[in-house]
Amino acid sequence: MAVLVDFTGSARAWAVDLVQPEDLTPIIRYLDLYGGELAVGEIGTDSKTPLKRLRLAPPRPAPILEEPNGAPNPFSRRKALRQYRKRLPELQAEYEAIEKARRDTNRVKIARFEADVKSFLAGDPNLPVTDLWSAISRATGFLVEDPLYWTTTSGKVPSRHIVISSDGRHNVLTSSFAKIHKSISIAVVSGTAGLGDFSRYGKRVRHFESSEAAISYTLANAMRGQN
After folding, report:
1. Is residue 109 scored above 70 in pLDDT?
2. Is the pLDDT assigned to residue 227 strictly greater than 60?
3. CA 88 to the chain's CA centroid
4. Cβ burial, residue 148 (10 Å; 0-12/13-18/19+)
5. With bands split at pLDDT 50, 70 and 90, how would you rate the model's confidence at 216?
6. pLDDT reported for residue 70
7. CA 209, CA 106: separation in Å to the nearest integer?
8. Angle at CA 17, nearest 5°, toward 212 and 10?
9. Pairing of strands 184-189, 160-165
């Protein structure tokens, strides 16, 4: 998931509900549970700068009690099942140790990311330039990275989402319109500004008044892929 925040004076003038550090907490909790990646970027003068990224590994599947496959007859299957039941506490303990190590690693990464993003979001809120397309191009590049790691570790193709809090008034002549891949869902928080230049993405855009609502919608969308 990518989140872009407008640091320009025009976003303040249009009373856009800009993303705050606490708005990201539900996303981080979701990633801690399921794995995935969050990137936060600037819309403004430095829209081409690297994104702030948090990457959390997915959990391993928990061991389950089921009849082992491949046994040639019922007697062999029952024997294999008894042996598996004996090993289940050991497998469960191994799983819990691995999961604890994953969550401990996550806590360190999350603390570092939250401190970095808090400082980032406290930046100058009155930048004069709105380089919208460069910011979206950078975020789209992040979202369409090869998903091999995620499909290998979780067995699922990650869903792709972008949340943008901005008045949507691009004003940099040297930056051209940025396409957003059709696999990416788009949620825009633009306050009283309407869709502005976001209207160029057509009916794909979901329009919200608040950042909290946009993120809640996007998370609900992402969670459908976990079921």
Report:
1. yes
2. no
3. 34
4. exposed
5. very high
6. 58
7. 32
8. 155
9. parallel
Average pLDDT of span 124-140? 93
Given this model, what pLDDT does residue 209 score? 94
CA-CA-CA-CA dihedral for 88, 91, 93, 96, to nearest 10: -120
- H-run or E-run covering 18: none
Distance between CA atoms of residues 60 and 154, nearest Å: 8
Burial 49-62 (b: 16+ CB within 10 A, else e): eebbebebbbbeee
Cα separation, 56 vs 52, whole angstroms: 14
Residues with Cβ within 8 Å of residue 145, at least 6 apart in sequence: none
User: Is the per-residue pLDDT at 182 higher than 90?
Assistant: yes
User: The pTM is what?
Assistant: 0.88
Q: Stretch 12-19: mean pLDDT, rounded?
A: 92
Render 152-199 in DSSP notation, one character per residue: HHHSSPPPEEEEEES------TTSPPPP--TTEEEEEE-GGG-SGGGG
Q: Would you say the C-alpha torsion 199, 128, 119, 174 has a positive or negative sign?
A: positive
Question: Which of the 8 DSSP states describes residue 73?
Answer: S
Burial class (CB in 10 A: 0-12, 13-18, 19+), 42: buried
Residue that has been written with the tokens 């696999």 in this structure:
183
Residue 73 has pLDDT above 80, yes or no: no
